[in-house]
Every structure is written in C-alpha cells, then in structure tokens.
Write a structure and sequence with these properties.
Number of helices: 11
Largest sheet: 6 strands, antiparallel
Shape: globular
Helix content: 25-40%
Radius of gyration: 28 Å
Structural class: alpha+beta
Strand content: 25-35%
C-alpha cells in the first residue's frame, strides 16, 4: 500500500500545478484585456486628434451643442435599433466590410478604415464614447464629390480649419474658421441622405429622395437646411453678439417639423347602406415620404370608423414605403440584403395621393365618427430582430422605435342620413 504522506504530497503538488495554471490563464486574459483597452484608447486618441470630440466644442459653442445633443444625429450609433441592425449586417455575407454602415452613421471612418473594428466595438457597447455624427464630422468637410455614388465628403485634416456658413467668425485659439458656400447647399447632406452604401445591389432603385431636385421647393430656392436647419436668432459661440444662426436639432420625423410634412383632406359620402370616405394625402415635402432608409421605413394612413358607443365598426389602412426582396426572392427589411424592389408605394415629392374606402353605413346610430391618422410606422422585421431591439433597449417594448409617430390627423362626426 502506497505511503499516505507521499499521496498527500502528490495531491498537493497537483493542486499547486492546477492553481498555477489557472493563475497564468487569468494573468494572460487580464493582460489581453489591458492590451485591448490600451489599443482602444490609442485608437480613440488618434481619431479624436483628427476629429475632435463634440465635448470639446461644447466649451465655446454651448447653444449649438445643447441643440445637437437632442437630435437624431447625436444618437447615430447609440440606438438599440442601430445596434441590432449592425449585428444583423455583420452576420450577413456582406458584413465583411465592417466600415460600411459607419460611412454614414460615423462618416469619419472613411479616414480610419484600419480602425473599423473599433467603431464596431464602440457601437456595440451601447454607450459609445466616440462621436457618430457630430461637429467635426460636418465642419471639417471642405467639399463633396458628387461624381461619386454615393457622393463623398472630402475632409481637410491637420490644419485646425473649421468650415461653416458665416463670414465674420470670431478669432479664437481653438481653431481657424472659413466661410464655405457648401454649408448653405443640399450637397452637404447628400453624402449620407441620397443613397444607402449598403444597398448597392439595388442600382437605380437605391434612391432615398426621389426627384427632389425637380421639386417646386428646390426650384424656389430651398435647400435641405431651409427645413432641417431653420434659421433662428442666437449665439454661434458663447458671448458672441446674437445674429441669425442655424438650428442644430435637425428636425424631421422627430420634432414639430413632421407636422408640416403632409396634409389630409377628407370627404365622407353616405349613400344609403353604403358609405365612402375619400382621403387626399398631400405630401408637402420635396423628397420621398418616407425616405426609404432604414429598409423598414414606412408611413401608414389609418382609417377608423366608430359607431354606437364609439365602437370601431370598420378599419382599414394604406402603407407607403418600399418592399424589398433578397437574392432568394424572399421579402426583407434589410437594405443590405435587398437586390430588387418588389413594390413601391412611397409618396413622391409633393405628390397628392387619393385613397378611397367603402364600408357599410353604421347601423343603430344617428351619427358615426371618422378618424384618419397619417403616421410614421414602428420598426418591423423578423421576430429575432425585434426581440434583439427590445433586449438592447433600457425601455424594452416601450422603446420609441416600437411607437408610431403621428404626422397628421383628421376627425369628424358624420350624421347618418335617413
């Protein structure tokens, strides 16, 4: 029989070896984490040396910063929807190009393609410290090359020159300033808002705006900034004399501007047992409504007829948007999978669309209510995608992405003719 002390020594030696091995693994893992953090810090420092963080701009441009901070641009890489869509893209065959989504959602990735993984890591963190679309991402643009599709912004880096719309910029130590006519033109916006880089397979159908440049608004001299960066009186920099400046909340589907996007004209005709409601949907914007990115973007016209005791007796809707198909012919809401458009119902620039609804005249009531609502629809897509958004959001199923956003409403009480 083996000597007991010797067995205990062997067991102790084995435990020591195991503990030592685990400590080594932990040390290696810790070293890897530290190295990764160090590399990320170095990458962010390199990027922000060329594209200063918006937090630095806030020191002198507090009003502008506070407006921008509430805007959709400030959350271009922050939302649960973007994270879920980014993960879906990266898992797709097209996902090898990690920088693709960021060419619009954080356009300075164009200058740092070798740091694309860092942009991905920042977005996936849910609380990125890196800016997406902020001050430098626009004000370092010297010109936009419209011969490319999509148009490409050309940045001037390393000179401390910031471009903007004002002639009389105050001298300061933080940066130089130069007036640029580009900042009064729609060209500044087209590099991100005309086509979708990920939807190259769509060819000419990869068009978000429609014939915007042929619209009445554009022919009258209006640019993107006219509506989406409206003039107001205020300071451009802290302590500066007040003057006409551009608003940086970037109103659109978020903000009061959406209420000026369309008008509803409703007529109701009661003809015995049959009633007809005709709705004229007048788009008031010089571009497609909706602009079709993301791929699930749609506007819905809802008709609700309420009879006795305000009970709904009829409901119908019309959907304005695009339906895409992937390479296998299946419907998809992801434009990076889209190879063709199956159906197109978007409202074209300044279009007036007539919709007719017919239904049995409500019974057992002297009057009935007609309610019509035009709204931006909530996010749609595969169940796994929607579940991922819900899981990523601190608000769960109450995340704004799951809520409709009203554009225009109409309501009237209609007598039933006897």
């Amino acid at each position: 029989m083996e000597d007991m002390p010797r067995v205990k020594n062997r067991r102790g030696l084995l435990r020591g070896i195991i503990v030592s091995a685990l400590l080594c693994v932990c040390a290696i893992a810790s070293y890897g984490v530290q190295q990764g953090l160090a590399q990320d810090a170095k990458a962010q420092s390199t990027i922000e040396k060329a594209f200063p963080s918006s937090s630095k701009c806030k020191r002198c441009h507090e009003r502008v910063f506070e407006e921008w901070e509430t805007s959709p641009l400030a959350r271009s890489i922050h939302t649960p929807t973007f994270r879920a869509a980014l993960d879906a893209y990266l898992a797709s065959p097209a996902g090898k190009d990690k920088a693709l989504c960021f060419r619009c959602h954080a356009p300075h990735v164009r200058e740092f393609a070798d740091h694309a993984q860092f942009f991905v890591t920042q977005a996936q963190s849910g609380e990125p410290s890196l800016d997406g679309v902020a001050c430098a991402q626009c004000h370092l643009i010297k010109h936009v090359d419209r011969t490319k599709q999509p148009p490409e912004p050309k940045y001037e880096l390393g000179t401390k020159m910031m471009y903007g719309p004002y002639k009389d910029a105050a001298q300061n130590l933080a940066h130089h300033s130069m007036e640029s006519a580009l900042f009064h033109k729609s060209d500044l916006c087209l590099n991100c808002h005309q086509v979708v880089p990920a939807a190259a397979e769509l060819g000419k159908s990869n068009d978000l705006l429609g014939n915007w440049d042929q619209s009445k608004a554009v022919k009258s001299g209006k640019e993107c900034q006219t509506c989406h960066m409206p003039e107001q009186v205020g300071e451009s920099a802290n302590g500066e004399a007040k003057r006409k400046v551009a608003n940086h909340t970037f109103p659109g589907r978020i903000g009061q501007l959406r209420q000026e996007a369309a008008r509803l004209e409703v007529t109701t005709k009661v003809d015995g047992e049959k009633t007809t409601v005709t709705v004229a949907v007048q788009s008031l914007v010089p571009h497609n409504l909706p602009t079709t990115h993301p791929g699930w973007a749609s506007v819905v016209l809802d008709l609700d007829i309420k009879g006795k005791n305000l009970k709904t007796v009829f409901n119908d809707k019309r959907v304005y948007g695009r339906t895409y198909a992937d390479a296998k012919g299946h419907k998809t809401v992801f434009d990076f999978e889209a190879v063709k458009v199956l159906e197109e119902t978007v409202l074209k620039p300044e279009e007036k669309r007539m919709e007719t609804f017919s239904f049995p005249t409500p019974k057992d009531t002297k009057t009935f209510d007609v309610e019509v609502v035009l709204s931006y629809a909530p996010v749609t897509g595969p169940a796994t995608f929607l579940q991922r958004i819900e899981a990523e959001s601190s608000k769960g199923a109450q995340d704004p992405a799951f809520q409709p956003i009203p554009i225009a409403k109409f309501g009237e009480n209609v007598p039933v003719a006897r």
